[in-house]
Amino acid sequence: MAARILRPQALTREAFAPFGEVIETQGAEERLINAGTTTRYHDLARVDVEAAGGRPLISIFRGQPFASPVTIAMFERHPLGSQAFYPLSGRPWLAVVAKDDAGRPGDAFAFLATATQGVNYARGVWHHPLLSLEGVSDFLVVDRGGEDANLEEQWLESPYRLEI
Ligand SMILES: NC(=O)N[C@@H](O)C(=O)O
Ligand code: NI
């Protein structure tokens, strides 16, 4: 079977809402703090990591770049916690997600994130592992630490061909 073609759309809060939040200053609640010397862009995403005694982890992921076309052959999800990625290297990147279809990945959606957009995958949302673009890129990652297994992977019978 020929690969299904997937083309990325712009990342917006509205379009990404079924999968989690977009982490960006645009449209965020702004709070002037520190005697007016700092703007706090407040409460951008829900860190949901407490299930089964989990705790929040802050890590840095250094991703190798992918080039178009990208083969999307699998999805993963974290049933016990959310997972947030924020780009640190000034480059765009790809967030690829899928609806759930009776416990397996359903329709897939690709989002082209700018260098100043992160995402928080809500707990249990199917997503592709990190897809950096253009060069080796660092990301700040906030996700769940704990004893229980928190990674479920599914390979697709028919991969997508993601054309940027
Ligand atoms: N495995 C891991 O920590 N990374 C993935 O969860 C990912 O979404 O990149
Ligand atoms: Ni993940």
From TrEMBL:
Reactions that this protein is recorded to catalyse: (S)-ureidoglycolate = urea + glyoxylate
GO molecular function: ureidoglycolate hydrolase activity; ureidoglycolate lyase activity
Keywords on record: Lyase, Purine metabolism
GO biological process: allantoin catabolic process; purine nucleobase catabolic process
Broadest EC class assigned to this enzyme: lyase
InterPro entries in the cross-refs: RmlC_Cupin_sf, UAH_cupin, Ureidogly_lyase, Ureidogly_lyase_bac, Ureidoglycolate_lyase_dom_sf
Pathway connected to this protein: Nitrogen metabolism; (S)-allantoin degradation
Cofactor(s) this protein cannot do without: Ni(2+)
Enzyme Commission identifier(s): 4.3.2.3
Family label: Belongs to the ureidoglycolate lyase family.
HAMAP family in the cross-refs: Ureidogly_lyase (MF_00616)
Complex and partners: Homodimer.
Task of the protein: Catalyzes the catabolism of the allantoin degradation intermediate (S)-ureidoglycolate, generating urea and glyoxylate. Involved in the utilization of allantoin as nitrogen source.
Entry protein name: Ureidoglycolate lyase
Organism: Jiella endophytica
